[in-house]
Amino acid sequence: MVIKKSISEAIRGTIPDCSTATEYLEKVKNHFSGSTKAYASTLIKRLSTMRYTGGGIRNHILSMSTMVAKLKTMNMGLPDPYIVNLALKSLPNEFETFIVNYNSQLDEWDLEKAIAMCVQEEERLKTAHGDSLNFAKHSK
């Protein structure tokens, strides 16, 4: 009864009664399995089309990383090199030389190193432009 009271009435009515809490929770889980697939699809689309629009490179890449972590819980984990390339692809044109330099290296970065290097490049660009750097926004 406690579990039923904590679930929205609209949802509660669609789930049949069960004799145990475990059985009831399993029915709730099965009820929403289709939603998980739709959510994963939405996350993948957002991740692949995401563009940096300001607010700090670190926050931008960390928000991408959060989406990847959510996908991982749905058995849709992505390898670090792919995530790093998505993150670099999402950066504004001011990072073009930086990205070319990364692509010309033999070694690959993990996500933590990519964040550190991108933040360092962001700081270098801000210093070079007098701390008033406004990155050009990508067009969709």
What is the percentage of strand-forming residues? under 5%
The helix-strand sequence is HHHHHHHH
Rg is 21 Å
Helix content: 55-70%
Which structural category do the helix and sheet elements fall into?
mainly alpha
What's the tally of helices?
8
Inertia-based shape:
elongated
Considering the chains and any ligands shown, give keywords for the structure.
140 residues, 8 helices, single chain, 2 domains, 65% helix, mainly alpha
Overview of this structure, please?
This protein has helices at 2-6, 9-12, 21-31, 33-49, 57-73, 80-89, 96-104, 111-128. The protein has 140 residues and is mostly helical. It has 2 domains: 2-31, no CATH class; 34-128. Helix 4 (33-49) packs antiparallel against helix 5 (57-73).
Structure summarized in a few sentences:
With 140 residues, this protein is mainly alpha-helical.
Question: What is the topology?
Answer:
Layout: H1 2-6, H2 9-12, H3 21-31, H4 33-49, H5 57-73, H6 80-89, H7 96-104, H8 111-128
Helix pairs in contact: 4-5, 5-8
